[in-house]
Amino acid sequence: MKIAIVGTGYVGLVTGTCFADMGIDVTCIDIDKEKISKLSEGIIPIYEPGLENLVKKNHQAGRLHFSTDLTSVLDDVEVVFSAVGTPPDEDGSADLKYVLDVARTIGQNLNHYALVVTKSTVPVGTAQKVRQTIADELQKRGVDIEFDVASNPEFLKEGAAIKDFMSPDRVVVGVDSEKAKTLMTKLYRPFLVSSDRLLFTDIPSAEMIKYAANAMLATRISFMNDIANLCDLVGANVNMVRKGIGSDNRIGTKFLYPGCGYGGSCFPKDVKAIIKTAEQNGYEMRVLKAVEAVNEDQKSLLFNKLSRHFDGDLKGKIVAIWGLAFKPETDDMREAPSLVLIDLLKKAGAEVRVYDPIAMDECRRRIGDKVAYCNNIYETTIDADAVMLVTEWKEFRVPSWNVIHRTMRAVYSPTGNPVVLDGRNIYDRKELQAEGFTYYALGK
Prior knowledge:
The chain is α/β, with parallel strands linked by helices. It has helices spanning 10-21, 33-40, 51-60, 97-109, 126-141, 161-166, 178-188, 203-234, 238-246, 267-280, 286-298, 301-309, 337-347, 360-367, 377-380, 401-407, 429-434, and strands spanning 2-6, 25-29, 64-67, 79-82, 114-118, 147-151, 171-174, 198-201, 318-322, 351-355, 372-373, 386-389, 419-422, 438-440. The protein is built from 17 helices and 14 strands. The strands form three sheets. A six-stranded parallel beta sheet has the order 3-2-1-4-5-6, sandwiched between helices. A six-stranded parallel beta sheet has the order 11-10-9-12-13-14. Helix 5 (126-141) links the parallel strand 5 (114-118) and strand 6.
């Protein structure tokens, strides 16, 4: 079986590589010539654990190919996955330009039956636009070629994408023909222990499922951040609250961890898009608007705590930031809380030093030399007034606090101690205080 994946970003590359690993002949397409050239050499544009080795293995085995020309492979493939970007417009709606460009190219060059599958996260109704675009191009050519359209939203967690694809808890496929259903069943059968995990729906429902899932997870995060902020005010411990409500099997424990705000490529964009979709249909998503507002405020929380500690004067203070990516096991900094914190600290006159195990190059690409880049967490703390933990990488979990205390300074601190601000609640207050730090966390 031969398929094409258009778009070699995070979703497209993982999808294509995993299909190839199951023996399917896959060609990944991208208009970026430099990216395709590097991929052919085994150099991948993103960090995802295990992906580089899997790309090299399947490329060398002749199952995974890379090209800049979709038209050159259309005659050979049965299925075309569209995994191109859908960046948010200024009003928050998803930009479908690239999705429809792919559809247009298919319509202009299709010569036999094909199933066109939208893998990108797109608003409800996009599949119909894709279908119409292909049909319009076929009509211009004066040909009548059968094709189907399907929706197959991805549910990959950055940092665990290979595992998520290889052992999915569910695969959602929106179809409106038996032929499309048969093809998608054939494609995904090798990945599914139980056929119950392959969920076929109508196409609009499949498109909605992706947005609804991400919106629900974002809601849980913002809800817990709101609860943590209230715990700070009333003297409760959010960790105890989290365990108490998480033990209710109607609620569960996942995504109930407070932090300094969600980021990444999915939650911020998808929450905005579903809000915009509702507006376009005359409805207001009041809960999700609050979710978004809480999240934006949360990204400033560590800065606000530090500013209060120093009585509003951060000029000349040295602040170490541990973690730049929006979450561990990725170099993705899209909508990352670290970017908001860096911007606020610089505007307040502070000097900022940063370290992240993976995302340093991505940070340089985004903000250049606005900050000092360090080789490890200990280098960031030399003569620093404060440390902010922003991303909970494993190597940050058990630092040598006695070493850090000796390298930091407290000459400007009202408490006489250097400051640690724990944006992920992973440290123990008593331990930090015993080591001579002033410790701030979220909701405890």
